[in-house]
Amino acid sequence: MIPMSYAQRRLWFLNRLEGPSSTYNAPVVLALSGVPDPEVLAAALTDVVDRHEVLRTAFAMADGEPVQRVLPTATVAVPVQRCAPQEVDAEVRRFCAGTFDLAEQGPLRVRLFVARPDESVLVLLLHHIATDGASIAPLLRDLSTAYRARLAGAAPDWEPLPVQYADYTLWQRELLGQVDDPDSELSRSLAWWRENLAGSPSALPLPFDRPRATGASGRGGTVTGHLDADTHRRLVDLARSQRASTFMTMQAALAAALTRIGAGTDVPIGAPVAGRSDEALHDLVGFFANSVVLRTDVAGDPTFVDLLARVRDADLAVYAHEEVPFDLVVEQLNPVRAPGQHPFFQVMLTVGAHTPTDLRLGDLPARTLPVDLEVAKFDLTVYCTELRDSDSTPTGVQVEFQYPVDLFDRATVESMLAVYLRLLRAVALAPTSTVGALQVVTDTEGAGFAERIARAAPAGVRRPDLPDDGPASLREEILCGLFADALGVDRIGRNDSFFRRGGHSLLAIKLVNRVRAVLGVEVGLRDFFVDPTVAGLDRRIGTLAGTGARPPLAPAVRPDLLPLSYAQRRLWFLDEMGGASRMYNIPVVLRLHRPVQASALTEAVRDVADRHEVLRTVYAVIDGEPCQVVLDRAQPEVTVLDVPVADLPGVIDAVTGHVFDLGTQIPFRVWLLRLSDGGQLLVVLVHHIAGDGWSTGPLLRDLAVAYEARLAGTAPGWEPLPVQYADYTLWQRDLLGGAGNPDSALARQLGFWRTTLAGAPQVLDLPADRPRPAQASHRGDVVPFGMDADLHRAVLRTARDSGTTVFMVLQAAFAALLSRIGSGTDIPIGTVVAGRTDEALDNLVGFFVNTLVLRTDVSGDPTFTELLARVRDTDLAAYDNQDLPFERLVEELNPNRSTAHHPLVQVTLVLQNTGSVQNGAAGPSALAGTEVPFDTGTAKFDLTLGVREEFDGGTPKGLKGALEYAADLFDPATAQLLADRFVQLLRAVTADPGTRIDDLDVLTPAERRRYGPAAEHGCRAESVGLADLVARHAADNPQAVAVVSGSDRIRYAELDADADRLAAHLAARGVRRGDTVGVLLEAGPTLAVAVLAALRAGATYLPLDPAARDDRLAAHIRTVVLAAVVTTSDQATRLAGLRVGRTVLTDVDGWRERPAAPPPGPRDPGDGAVVLVVDDADGPRAVRYPHRALVGAARRAGLDTDAAQVWLGWAAPAGGEFMMPLWSALSTGATCVLPAPAPPSAARLARLVAEQGVTSLTVTAELFALLVEEHPQVLTRLRQILVTGRTAAAHLALARDRHPTLRLVHGYGGVEGGWWALGRVVDTPPVGPDVPVAQDGLRCHVLDDRLRPVPAGVRGELFLCGPGLADGYPDRPGATAARFVADAGGGRMFATGTSASWSAEGGLRVHGPVAAPTCNGVPVDPQRVSTALISHPSVRWAVVSVRADADGGEQLVAHVVPTTSSVDVAQVRRHVAQLLPEHLVPARVVVLTTVPLTGDGRLDHRGLPDPEDTGAGKTARDPREEVLRDIFSELLGGRPVGLDDNFFRIGGHSLLAVRLVNRIRSTLSVEVTIRDVFQAPTVAALVERLTATVTPARPTLRRRAGVR
């Protein structure tokens, strides 16, 4: 690729800047006496294009550089257009006004217009990028030669050109050298130009009729004048006598004329130079012409002769440096730019001689015709054409003034031309006259020129000295990064001119391309040049996007009732709902540098309140609507306190925690603290309803001005504020319009947010230490942390490389962290925007900030770079729709409303890159001071990540972070760990932004050691099987009792011998090692013998329940292939038609006659021992356990396994609750009690424990709860008890407290993972609903979806490992492989599908299914609700589930067993509402007499009855229910309302809640609060609450009678 020449590059840039335009078309129009042969002409033109490469060259960008692409060949077509003679001129002009796509087309286009058989017009339309004035002669000469040759049937015979234009381009660069080489020709010449043009006016003031406008059309007009032959001769003689040229004479006269009409005395004029400094270029077509700036000095009122001498000397110096391309002069000298204004000069002068027009095309006579393209490249272009006769005698000068019609009227330019012609005639006659003495401007022309110049001047150039300030929006911040990146600087201000900071045209192209790519907006170079600053381009983008126009903000007519702004309404509502608190205070505490006079301070505070209405506003409710009441005058309280230094922290906490009553107190107070050490502290406190962070600047500034005035005994002399906050409130509503108007900003932005936030999580799952309480206390604390300068630089670099901002980098990292610690891949993060979208608000105190929801999509495992691109697109779209108030958004989207959490977002991110409140506030004033840090002790959100950028000058100094956390949810250690993880992740992604999010390591080194693959999991493989252990115990203690069943006792010797006999019988019937034998027997000694016999035969046994229905029994048998079934003759009949292999009847076959010797053959602990069949929603599934899973299971669970234990096998024989105690006993030489079959119940267990002397009991959580509540005495008889499943902490705590010597073990496992895979001895009463069930390092992992360990506190899936695992699913290898996966530490592990987490102390907490249940789209934890229910003294047991309600929605339903015969359901619900968020309060509570259980002692969900219907058609049970239902319905537009319909879910929102409260107060005469509505948002729940509290209603505030 060959670079463009400098001249070409400039034209190419202008083409890109202006878009498709004919401005730089250079047509050659030939009138022919005849019609050429089109085919011959086409061949000749092809020859010419082949001879001159530049005519077959395309111009484009490659790798960011403009290049020439020379095409190998190009065939020229010659379209013929026939038209009437009178149409030719118009058609030629239309063709010549066409545009070129320089990147795709060659710069030559041809058309032949035929009017008559003997008359035609040939147009060669060229773009100036490939030609210039001196190119016309060689072009036409070569065309004529080629046409004659082709007409004769031959190719043209011409000498090859010595060079091509591309050669010139490379030679030009070699000739000039490099800019950075001080010895190069280019460097020396540029230094000369820099000196020569220093101080030159950037814009020449001309008498424009209109100011220069953005997006000018470029259309031009021309006026023509004539100098007579005598004047021409005199001017030629004058030039010769002064050793000057005619050009110099015309230039001096033009400069003098412009000075006389008001353009000043420093007149830069542009002029073309041929640029063909080497003779090899003389016959070459191409763009060689260059422009030079001829700076003409008319100062001091010189004579014209003196002026001509000045011009001569100046021009000769310029021509010595004419080789430097004008484009490079512009780039390197970087003048002030303005859109539509040519740099350095705006007036161009061309002086030339008239050339003969007689030519020939072959044999056809031809002449060139002028073409007026009606375009203007400059503010004024002056063409002077000398006319001479055949012997070169001067015969006159034709003078043309070409002008842009956007700037001038024709009459004005005619006057300018007249002045020029008068001056030329005058100096021709009297060249020694002073320029000022020449009478060339009439009085009428003077008042007019001067007036126009004065009017046009302000519309000229942008001021280059605007302040370098920070970005005012997110898009501006991105643009700042892109500008800085293009310019190679660290930082750039929003008002810095791109060109003043070193930019040039090529960099501008690159920047615009980058802006297009990053922001996805179709912005052009012209848009950039309108105002080449960050702020200007941002405004232009806003205009292009249709977001630029806004109604003006001005003082408004106040209505009788002044509404709150949307932001204020939300704060007022929160104040009403939660009660007055310090949470929304904005305090500033300053340690003053100088003592303050209290009386002057008091007056100044009143002045500030007078100045800012919002500081003297209270908030009332009138006719159910909150409104602002602006007080005419108010004296804010100024309290002076004398404080001992030691008491200062407490005093600061007390005063900054002052609680405002918004209904009666203005939201502004001040304290002056006089310290015992002589120092003074100023505390300024504003409620957030009247201010925001930005407001502290103008507030302190105004306070300082007022104080200094009052100190001097005067009132402050400040300029009045343009508007007040009340005006903003009304303007905001006007700006947004109505939601019912689809064209309003409100409707558009609501539509955007509705789409953007559809399906977003309502509550973000965070790794909290505690569950969310019913009502957030908003207690909080802060963890500070730091990020060094290296990381700061890395963040800045990442932002710049990705076309994003520091905020976006932090947001993406924060979202990535939250995603990696269990918050999912849909992460809504809140942030605040200043909301001061009109400059009239800049100095106003008030609450303008708005909250934006930035929904961050981390799905699909993106790289960090890809995530940043998503964040950028999301954030820019959000900021384009930032006017919609957050509260209005909440009303529209109507998420689940709760006093427990913030709606829509629970985590926020704040970036501060400005100074403290003192920067530019009090400054060096009498109130100057140092900020005093203090802790507010509050948290508005679950987590707020605050980051402040710090710079040393312009050098990144580091990032200071602060993680504010809700103390309801997090411990300090957890918050610190989150901060540490954030820094670790931020460092990783900025070091390698190509890293995928799922590849980021969020574990600390300690966690990696504890939870990683190399961690010790305490898994010891067993080396002996169950059958061998029983044989060992039979040999060691043959008379020990093995099994007790009723009155039957079977000792180990007998059990061992009978098992050997039956095993031999099974072997004789064909049972082999690896087979499966079904055992269909009642619980008792024979069952024990049968299962042991199957193991002795090397087989696996499948226990079958004789009590099962026939269909269920058949289904279980079909799950495996059986070699035999051991049963009795009465049960055998049930097996007819089933594939069961051999049938062995224990009551008929003669197996007892066989010798007591086991079948020979090897056995291994890895052999299958038991197959259990469990029923789930997909039908029965079989699970096989090896011997090693059962051997030592009790010991691994934490139980005592001595032989003196008596175990109870109380469950049905086909399940794990029977299998585990049986083998726990027989494998340890202990006794197992096998009672007669009966439905499980707590009473039965208590009786069996007492009767049989049971010492070891294993029970389900359901049975354990009933035992603790109904039969606590049973626990005194036991030595140990193991509880399986998610057990209520309350019941474990009760058992632990009442029975301190009892060994209480909480076991957890499951079918595949081993029934007691995990066990934890409960030494201390547990706290909270998530009971720790194991210590870390014990046979389990908690892993993410890529099977990596999760950090402490983060939920993952529980994987069980170790010897207790099942083998898998018999004959189902695919299903086995899906759930039993390789363990990175060796062996296998089982995916439980259960959510779990590690506690900070190292315990394992089990939380329920990974796919947590939801109710109306909100995740719920039924176990937590059950725990809250059980904590009520009248509830013994509870279970909670999600069920359909009467209206087709979902509701939480609780089934409870009371401690007494009856229970007050309303009281129980109120109790739960005090403990849990309202979405977790059961809508229905169903009272049961007992817990329905399955055969293995677990809850039988099918036995839980449905609640009664309370839908809209259900009759109210209480008169107040009927009244409330009517009020609900009326406020919701008349819709039917059920007793359990949630007010907010059926259309209610916060403002309606306010009206609801007022209606209830006035109708029922009871006191009710907004908080009551939030916590009890149904008719039934609200009636319950009103029943419990009968406070009389406060009086209703109404408008006075007669007041409108």
From TrEMBL:
Keywords: Phosphopantetheine, Phosphoprotein. One of its GO terms (biological process) is secondary metabolite biosynthetic process. GO terms for molecular function: catalytic activity; phosphopantetheine binding. This is Carrier domain-containing protein. Gene3D superfamilies: 3.30.300.30, ACP-like, alpha/beta hydrolase, Chloramphenicol acetyltransferase-like domain, N-terminal domain of ligase-like, Nonribosomal peptide synthetase, condensation domain. GO terms for cellular component: cytoplasm. The keyword Phosphoprotein applies. InterPro entries: AB_hydrolase_fold (IPR029058), ACP-like_sf (IPR036736), AMP-bd_C (IPR025110), AMP-bd_C_sf (IPR045851), AMP-dep_synth/lig_dom (IPR000873), ANL_N_sf (IPR042099), CAT-like_dom_sf (IPR023213), Condensation_dom (IPR001242). Residues 204-226, 1498-1519 are annotated as: Disordered. SUPFAM superfamilies: Acetyl-CoA synthetase-like, ACP-like, CoA-dependent acyltransferases. Its cofactor is pantetheine 4'-phosphate. Residues 470-545, 1515-1590 form the Carrier domain.
